[in-house]
């Protein structure tokens, strides 16, 4: 019995998600059109994810939360989901407050270093 050993990585068909830029401010009347765009992007790309660029939405409010919830519901009904790109920290906090969780892109992590870890060591320091 013989097997063929292939060199390199196996072929992976990566699908790049579509991007929907949400210009701000968005009125309630635009929600159905944006939901239709999310549905169409999911059907045409078959990526399963639509990236919503929310960087230009402006100050967050409940209208923005309502829009994002409706876009997520539309995406879920079409077999996908949405991912937020460049969310304002205030929008992120507001979404947490109302209990909505979204996957995000380009989110800067700000964490403290673990306790007991030294960032710099001086010659002659004792090991801990």
UniProtKB/TrEMBL annotation:
Region (Disordered), start-end ranges: 108-128
The STAS domain sits at 19-124
PROSITE patterns (UniProt xref): STAS (PS50801)
Q: What InterPro entries does UniProt report for this protein, alphabetically?
A: MlaB-like_STAS (IPR058548), STAS_dom (IPR002645), STAS_dom_sf (IPR036513)
What's the superkingdom here? Bacteria
What's the protein name? STAS domain-containing protein
Protein's organism? Streptomyces pactum
């Amino acid at each position: 019995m013989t097997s063929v050993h292939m060199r390199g990585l196996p072929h992976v068909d990566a699908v790049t998600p579509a991007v929907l830029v949400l210009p701000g401010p968005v009125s309630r009347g635009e929600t159905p059109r944006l939901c239709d765009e999310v549905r169409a992007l999911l059907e045409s790309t078959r990526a399963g994810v639509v990236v919503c660029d929310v960087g230009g939405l402006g100050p967050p409010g409940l209208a923005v939360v309502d829009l994002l919830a409706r876009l997520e519901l539309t995406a879920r009904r079409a077999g996908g989901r949405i991912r937020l790109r460049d969310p304002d920290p205030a929008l992120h906090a507001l979404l947490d407050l109302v209990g909505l969780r979204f996957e995000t892109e380009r989110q800067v992590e700000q964490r403290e270093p673990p306790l007991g870890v030294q960032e710099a060591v001086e010659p002659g320091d004792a090991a801990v």
